[in-house]
Amino acid sequence: MQALENLRVYQEAFEFVNELYSHVRAIPEKRLQDQLFGSSTSICANLAEFAACVTNNHRRHKLVISLGEVNETQFWLDFCRTNGILTEECYSIAIQRLVHIRILLVRLMKTIPVNEERVY
Fold first, then answer.
1. 16, 53, 93, 103: which has the fewest C-beta neighbours closer than 10 Å?
2. Tell me, what's the pLDDT at 116?
């Protein structure tokens, strides 16, 4: 198990979510707010679960889910920019942060050995 506070990608993702929150709250459509906030917070939630994993397969699984949430968050940011909901500046900053988080997740995944552990 890892200490969550020592996980750099978690710290970066948590900062990202907190910065994004004020922009998400300003989105007039509640459903869109929920989608964007849900996918972005799920990055952190899955990393929190990752920190408690005891097998390599479970660790990798949580990182794959986090990467999926990064991709979903990017989709919602793209949608918001395309439809004039987010400014270009806000979008650019958010995407830069998201790309950095994606890089950190992939790097972390590469440190975890691939094996066929089974937990019963």
1. 103
2. 60
